[in-house]
Amino acid sequence: MLEILVAQITPVKACVCLVGIFFLAGLLRRLQVSRENSRLGERAPRIRFQLPYAIDHIYQYVVANHNCQDLVFWQSSILNAQGASSIDHPQTAELDAGISNRTIVTTDPQNIRALLTGQFADFGKGEEFHRDWKEFLGDSIFVTDGELWSRSRQLIRPMFTRDRIVDTELFEKHIQHLIPLLAGTPDSKAVDVVPLFLRYTLDAATDYLLGEGTNSLQNPATTFAEAFKYVQHRQGEIFRYVPFNFLLSRTKFRQNLKIMNDFIQPYIDRVLSLPPSDLTQDPSKPSTFLHALAHFTRDPQILRDQLTAILLAGRDTTATTLSFCLYELSRNPSVVQSLRAEISTRLGLGPSSKTPTYTDLKEMKYLAAILNETTRLYPVVPFNLRYALSPTTLPTGGGPTGSSPIGIRPHTRIIYSTMLMQRDPAYYPPPEESKAYYYDPGKWIPERWMRGWVPAPWRFVPFNGGPRICPGQQFALVEMGYTLVRILQVYGCLRAGRGDGRGDGVGEGVEGDLRMRFEITLNPGSELNCVFERDDGGGYDGGQGGGGDVKKERSA
Ligand code: HEM
């Protein structure tokens, strides 16, 4: 019987059979997976798509990302998902595009809390993420889970003790190079603050990590900075275009990675050539992050991976937040006035002013309100990702009313957006309840923090929460606070700049809405031009230490 069948089969028939078997197997597997999901919990509203593997949805996302429309895209994907119309306040949806690439998108604080703390062990970066990022970040803190992650966390902890972050001297050195550049050029007063802050934070971060800054403020064309920028950009694409990222070429990516590694390697060689006795933790000896790391491990690969991870974490995050903050300040003169009043009372303005200490920065309430408001409206990790590590659930968003737990199989991707959550009007007092003051949640208004508004738990998490909370939070707040104070001690007036090189560059500001580009982190999608004008009562004295003594505080 079998012999007769084999004898009669033609190549065409064989192909048709194989295709049939392939589809049948796929269908059966899909049914099995769907049953497993239903056994674990409910399904969330389904994001709509027409083509196999949701190719049309992925394509639309690529276009939206290119046009800086990520927020609108994900918000409307959730609101227009099949089944969302019967839910009061849809915050979660799923994209079930095949057998193994189900993605849940959520902005619900209950789910975010579960991911980051309550069900921390069930969700992590996952193997897929680790594999996609390994060339860039190796086995460092950002890309690992479990034991590997925990060891990294312990390794870097000593660098973020209070003892170290109170030392603001490091920033002063670089701010002295930044401040004159903010004045613009003879051709245009308007300066795009984004590249300047990127150079400033790169110099400060390399100084902190390696003991020697890249000095990119003095010499903008540093090869390392260019290579780092390209690698981040490409890694962002590799991250976003899962599961089709294997189509992206890695050649230029690897060439630039090599430039980065070649830059870092001599520092590692130098520190490894020191005898262990020279790597003491004696605080009286100026020790860099690299020295501290080498105290615990002499493995050059681990040193390279952790350094790169901290550089990534510490550079764009603060540069971007400062850029958005300056953009908003230049459009809100009354906020500049109030902040300068606070600075004036505490530290003074102009050439005879004092530089802020850690305690000054911590006690300046209006400064804190400005930084809170900036990280509320522009959290630098607007969309974050976790993979399910075991069969589990998310607490809410499933079923017809959207209030049941969602069943989650291992390897399911969860995208959570703190940015959409932090801008959601449902979490703010509505205009009718706000009496004299109504602060639109979509707008940058630091006053909301001064008038008794306190976000409910897990509704303001720009630095994440739970065991993976950002260890650099205090360092970042000190760096950003210090930088703002020092700039406003020198420049009394900030204005929106046109920045097209015409005339003095002062204009009505960037036309249209602010564009936000999502790469690995949030970035401005266009120039953020500001005009800085010196304080009438005296201004920058040419970098001769016009801000008084550099103060350093150490904890008792
Ligand atoms: C405005 C400034 C910053 C913001 C808003 C911010 C935010 C965040 C967020 C949301 C995460 C969680 C990422 C995830 O779980 O996937 C994170 C992680 C991290 N951040 Fe920051 N960050 C900032 C600055 C810094 C700085 C200056 C440093 C170091 C110098 C730093 C070091 C880290 C590290 C090492 C992690 C990984 C923690 C872990 O996975 O356990 N961050 N940050």
Written overview of the protein:
With 556 residues, the chain is an alpha+beta fold. It has one domain: Orthogonal Bundle (Cytochrome p450), CATH 1.10.630.10. Helices cover 48% and strands 10% of the residues. The protein has 20 helices and 12 strands. The strands form 4 sheets. It has a 5-stranded mixed β-sheet with strand order 1-2-8-5-3, sandwiched between helices. Strands 4-12-9 form a 3-stranded antiparallel β-sheet. Helix 6 packs antiparallel against helix 11. It is globular. The N and C termini lie far apart (90 Å). The chain binds protoporphyrin IX containing FE.
Q: Largest sheet, described in full?
A: 5 strands, mixed
Helical run tally: 20
By secondary-structure content and strand pairing, the structural class works out as alpha+beta
* Small molecules (ligands, ions, cofactors) in the structure: protoporphyrin IX containing FE
CA(first)-CA(last) distance: 90 Å
Total discrete domains: 1
Q: Under the CATH scheme, which class? A: Mainly Alpha
Q: Write down how many β-strands occur, each being a DSSP E stretch of 2 or more residues.
A: 12
* Overall radius of gyration: 26 Å
Strand order of the largest sheet: 1-2-8-5-3
CATH superfamily: Cytochrome P450
Mean pLDDT: 87
> What do we call the CATH topology?
Cytochrome p450
Would you kindly provide a brief summary of this structure?
Pfam families: p450. This protein has 556 residues and is of the alpha+beta class.
